[in-house]
Amino acid sequence: MPKVGMPEVRKPQLVKATMTVIGRVGLHAASISLISKEAGVSTGIINHYFGGKHGLLEETMRVVLRELSATVIDALREIPRHHHQARINAIINANFEGFQAKSDVVKTWLAFWSYAMHDNELHRLQRVNEKRLLSHLRIELRALLPEEQAAMVAQGIAALIDGIWLRGALNPKGIDANNARTIINDYLDKQLTFYGRPQG
Fold first, then answer.
1. SS (H, E, C) the chain
2. In which pathway is this protein known to take part (predicted)?
3. Which of 70, 74, 64 is nearest to 106 (CA)?
């Protein structure tokens, strides 16, 4: 039996196992038994660290959201603050590349999106993620557009990210990050042309 008392090792191990099992059998069929077997631990370990399946699902969602947030922040840190369109592209890229584009993560996102409609805590986490995305976008767009239009275009970009991501997630070929960038930048360019502040 594995030793209890190693949360820094056990928790990531169990989150990874959760995503693997969700990817294989779906969220509803992802039982404590299957997850513990995948992780190579006893079911008691899950109860010990998370208080059961629901707590483990919440932690899995938090990990996915933390990874996304860290990716966005790290990418923005590398781009000068006055390069607003490049920074918008960095936000877009974070949603379509790297960790977020891994097969198990994509399937976990899909499962949580459907489950969050019926679960208050998961819905809250999803709302936090949505507000964070819109906040990042508005910060950059305010430098390029009047306030009202910046908020509207941020909503448009967020909707395109979600829609393109969902279509890609359901496509056997996966998510095409280059195509996502092309579509979203086409929308952004048109909005900047129509609403953009005069230069000079």
1. CCCCCCHHHHHHHHHHHHHHHHHHHCCCCCCHHHHHHHHCCCHHHHHHHHCCHHHHHHHHHHHHHHHHHHHHHHHHHCCCCCCHHHHHHHHHHHHHCHHHHCHHHHHHHHHHHHHHCCCHHHHHHHHHHHHHHHHHHHHHHCCCCCHHHHHHHHHHHHHHHHHHHHHHHCCCCCCCHHHHHHHHHHHHHHHHHHHCCCCC
2. Amine and polyamine biosynthesis; betaine biosynthesis via choline pathway [regulation]
3. 64
Structure tokens given for 70: 């860290």
Alpha-carbon separation of residue 173 from 145, 169, 191 (angstroms):
36, 9, 30
Q: Which residue has the tokens 């008691």?
A: 44
Q: What is the pLDDT of residues 150-169, one digit of tens each?
A: 999 999 999 999 999 888 88
- C-alpha to C-alpha distances, 65 to 6, 69, 80, 130, nearest whole angstrom: 23, 6, 24, 10
Please list the ranges in the chain whose pLDDT falls under 50: 1-5, 199-200
pLDDT for residue 8:
64
Q: Where are the domains of the chain?
A: 61-195
Tokens of 100: 């977020």
The whole-angstrom separation of Cα 191 and Cα 198 is 13
Domain 61-195 part of CATH 3.40.50.300:
no
